[in-house]
Amino acid sequence: MKREIIQTRDGSTTIHIKEWDECYHSRFGAIQEAQHVFIKNGLSLFENKSISILEIGFGTGLNAFITFLESEKLYQNIHYVGVEAYPVSIDEVLLMNYVSELNAEIERKIFDKMHACNWEEPFVLRNNFSFTKRKQFFEEIDDYEKFDLIYFDAFGYNSQPELWSTAIFQKMYNALKNNGILVTYAAKGVVKRSMIEVGFTVEKLQGPPGKREMFRAKKI
Fold it and tell me: CATH homologous superfamily of domain 29-218?
């Protein structure tokens, strides 16, 4: 499928898939979306804690990089696992402007290492942050009670409804520890019903720029 790099409204870049008219991040602001959905409504709930994070859709590495930056402000020790079935090419990574837009030039090597390190191998980015990329289809995930937080950042329901199925959310529920949290930009009724069916308690929150609402789900 044909892909192109586009600039979102907050100045940060993303990848656009023309055939689906689908982007890796919100057109209204890639960085703004990541900070609102995954940091404000997810990561920030675990201040001063040691946690494990599972990202569904590693993609451009934006969510992982922002999490790395924020983890030091929040005094966290993090084990981060990013799952991606179709890795972004290095040529595409080089066109992402996240480091400059986040004013994080001092940490550029970290962003580069996230993409350069080997798949399936744990990598220590800093004493408080270990990182693993897994090249894996989401339906193959079989983790059990390993994670405190899931970033569910798959392509939208209209493009790939199978990624938002009850079967997939059962895997997410299984992967979380008790009282674990899943956050996603999605707010469709069908998604909420699938989450509830597998046992999640779901709350609707204010969405990021360009979206009215989003979901946060908890395993109790």
Answer: Vaccinia Virus protein VP39 (3.40.50.150)
